[in-house]
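ok so i was messing around last nite and threw this chain in just to see what happens. nothing serious, just curious
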Amino acid sequence: MLLLVMVGIPTAFAVFDEDTLRMSDDFSSITASAIGAMLLIQVVETYTAMRQTRESFDVLRSKTEDPSRGPVTPADLGRARSYVSIAFVSIVSLSVLAVSLMLVVLWSAIDGHGPARWLAWFSWCSVGFGLGVLIWASLVRYLHEAVAVAQLHAYLPPDPPAPVLGARSDTGDEAGSSSSGAST
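result:
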């Protein structure tokens, strides 16, 4: 949904709006900087997604081969599938951002370059797509971590109730008192 909004709105403006976006030297430098930063972040994101994909499939394989490690749960399968999705979409985003950066740099190198409206819209949409992928991947990771924390919390023993000051315990002493039974 977020990706559709981030890419769909600029595309709708490109097709239906009378005000047209055009490439300029300032816009190309801003766009190239933004794309370069997102490429760097996306490379790390892709590497992390590939590593987490491998780890999640290792867990699935070990649970399948050794039943004493517990059964394969739907959460294990969902985690593995979502990491595969993150890795795939990150690779697609890397490709789109790299092509966009190459086209912007090529446009900047051409002597007497024109407005290149298509390039302005393509670079704008690729920045939106790259940003949307980063936000989506982060949300998926945070949700998986929240589920893992909730599962860990479910295994913790309940906390004993805190003593209430002034309440009597079964031994007749007040709760929270430090007397050893000897009166002073």
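not much to say yet. The two ends are 73 Å apart (CA to CA).
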